[in-house]
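Researcher: Please translate sequence to structure tokens.
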Amino acid sequence: MDHGGRVLSRNDAIDPVTRTKTLQPEGCRAASPNAAAFVEERRGSATPPYICSCIVPARSPAVGWISPFRYRLVATTGRLLMNAFQFSVRASSLPLLAIGLLLVGRVGAESARFANASKARIEKGYAVVQFADGTKTMVPMASLPDEDRAFLTALSSQNPLAHGKSEVVVAKETFNVKQTIQVATMVGLLETVQLCSPSVPRNQLGATCMLYGRVHWLDIAGYPLDNAAIYRISNNVDPSRPWADPRYMQGLAMLTTTGKPPPLIHNLPPQEVDPFEWARGELRQGRPILAALPKEIWQALPPGFVAAHPWNGGSVGHQVVINGFTWNQETKQGTFHIINSWEELFEFDLKTEAAQGGALVIEQSLSPRGEMPAPTAEEIVKTITFLRTAGKTNLYEVETNLGKRRVAATSEDGARALVENAK
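Model: Translation complete:
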């Protein structure tokens, strides 16, 4: 340390009173043989390393001869005063620090919403909170942030809110089942079932029959869609070839996964022998059918329409909806009522004989809004018939209470296990 332009040197002797190292400014001693100085080094501190004591002449008219003990006393007193000053600064800051910590803890404990909360009670997933002014509120715990949940949990233990006469009852959300069946009669041998029509008949834009067919299908079942939901799917794709755009197909899938409650869809069972009979059974339950005319659709159109609108043929597919039928079980004749997405031909009847041969393909049915899922029936094997060997395994036809299917297995026991243990 520089002391008046002179360098201080260390004296390694440890003072027995102050337990500190004493440094003398040798430059000062050289300049004045009667001068003495002491510098205190605080142990364990890097900056500043030295505190220099006042330099007093060893012999002075005012104070006389000053012994080394008196110098040590001066140095010790100075060190004690310095430590007391530093402690007082630290101590004076403790209340401010404590207040700051309390404020930070208070803000972090809960939001301003519950700043004046005085009591709380938690039951059945809800928190009943009483504030300082006597007002109360009830909030679901799941809707609160983590800090509010922790605060109310602690408050309910420290200051529990007594039970009143009221009781929290969580009501299960229920939906009325839409009544889609308008006609269900049996006149002689002729059965007639007719579901409601879509609330809004729509005319497809370009080749978007897959979209508008599903819009009509959902509408009949009680899931109407507005124009904004439809245009979000059709406006960003090429209307002449929308199926080639992945965004279009993704939009179609989202139509049947949204809604409250979610639409309940039933696929045509793969083992179904007579898809038309399956479709009639679904319509009897009020479920509209999503179908398609995958071949030359002009063959299925009414003759009058074809005569007024020349058709150039070609293998053109078209999405339609079935919302009714007539059927004579004795003669095996009847019709399907088709909902179309053309303004000029919104609906027509298709004879069952014209629908044969793949002209009409049944795809899915849709439960009316509010219908609860039926419990899954347990599949029980009735018979197992060996068909042929297929490589290192065998092909079996398995008949169950749900129909027939073909299964590849190494043995009959393996085929039975595959069917009965299927998830």
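Researcher: Any highlights?
Model: The first strand starts at residue 2 and ends at 3.
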